Amino acid sequence: MKKFYSKFFVVSIVCTCFISGHVRSMDADAIALMTNDTTEAQAVNSAKKNQSSVARIDSRAAVPSSTSNSSTKNEFETGIAYYYGEGREQDFSQAFFWLKKAAEHGDANAQYNLGNMFFSGTGTTKDDVQSRYWLEKATKSGHILAAHNLAVLWLKGLGGKQDSAKAAIYLEVAVRGNYAPAKHTLARMLLEGDGVDRDTPRGITLLKEGVAQGNLDSKYDLAYIYFKGEYITKNYSFALKEFESAAKKGHADSQYMTGYMYAKALGTSQNDEKVLYWMRAAGLQGQSKALKFLEIVDPKFLRNMKIEGK
User: Fold this and answer.
1) Residue 273: which of 19, 11, 13 has the closest Cα?
2) Could you tell me the pTM of the whole model?
3) 252/288 Cα distance (integer angstroms)
């Protein structure tokens, strides 16, 4: 499977855009953003190149202590209280201090959080080697989120060598724990044959499971598959429905693709107002192709964004 990368977005239509209260008509040449050899199949955003969801650390820290030892449990809860500023002033250095104590005393959730803090450099110096060390300890204790994050480090080669096959092993642990982000990452690997044998049916099944669990990255990828028709019969209507559903929940790449499909009348009738609405929404989140579009079609909106510091 190609990595969902593509060239520039193309608007090859004559459209009337409603910009800042004024009607502005443009011909196709005025708003085309293309390379010399762009085709419709290539005219899709490079969302997956920009998107960090594959190999992204889940940094949630507010999970309960996994130990029955009262002293270690108190260390963990003290660390979390400092982390979030609950009942005391927020202090990441103190959070790190107390969570490290709990981690050293065998608390898996403290080990998971410590691994995340080493990864992000929160309360300590960033250290991917230590991040991998503590996440592996938590994973050995059966911590599902730690297994996912450890897979991320193996997948990216952070804190040690890169090994997609090893990453897949840890992702399987997290998938067995029904963790949706792990399903998304493993699905991508199965579809691409990255570190595992290519398994299209299972990859698509995992994406659908992720969608059912509300994972927006899974929804985006499933929509893209139907958009491209690479593994399933092409279905623009279904793709648009899934893109727009994720777009309404704030997924920037889905917002861009929703605008793209309304511009190209794919799975729907052409709708200039929706094109501009979704391109602006994606642009506000820094989506690169949407910003490129806005430079041409709606420069005033882009200038206002910069003035407001968005």
Assistant:
1) 19
2) 0.75
3) 10
Q: Name the token pair of 91.
A: 């202090």
Distance of CA 119 to the CA centre of its chain: 17
Confidence of residue 66 (pLDDT cuts 50, 70, 90): low
CB 111 within 8 A of CB 96: no
Distance of CA 120 to the CA centre of its chain: 17
Domains and CATH numbers, the chain: 15-43+235-307 (no CATH), 70-212 (1.25.40.10)
pLDDT in tens, 148-186: 999 999 999 999 999 999 999 999 999 999 999 999 999
Token representation of residue 162: 């890169």
Length of the chain: 310
pLDDT at res. 65: 54
Nearest C-alpha neighbor of 127 from the set 112, 117, 136: 117
Distance CA 65, CA 102 (A): 9
Amino acid making up residue 159: G
Rounded CA gap, 20 and 191, in Å?
43
Higher-scoring residue by pLDDT: 106, 55? 106
**Angle between the N-to-C axes of helices 252-264 and 216-228, in degrees from 0 to 180, rounded to the nearest 10:** 30
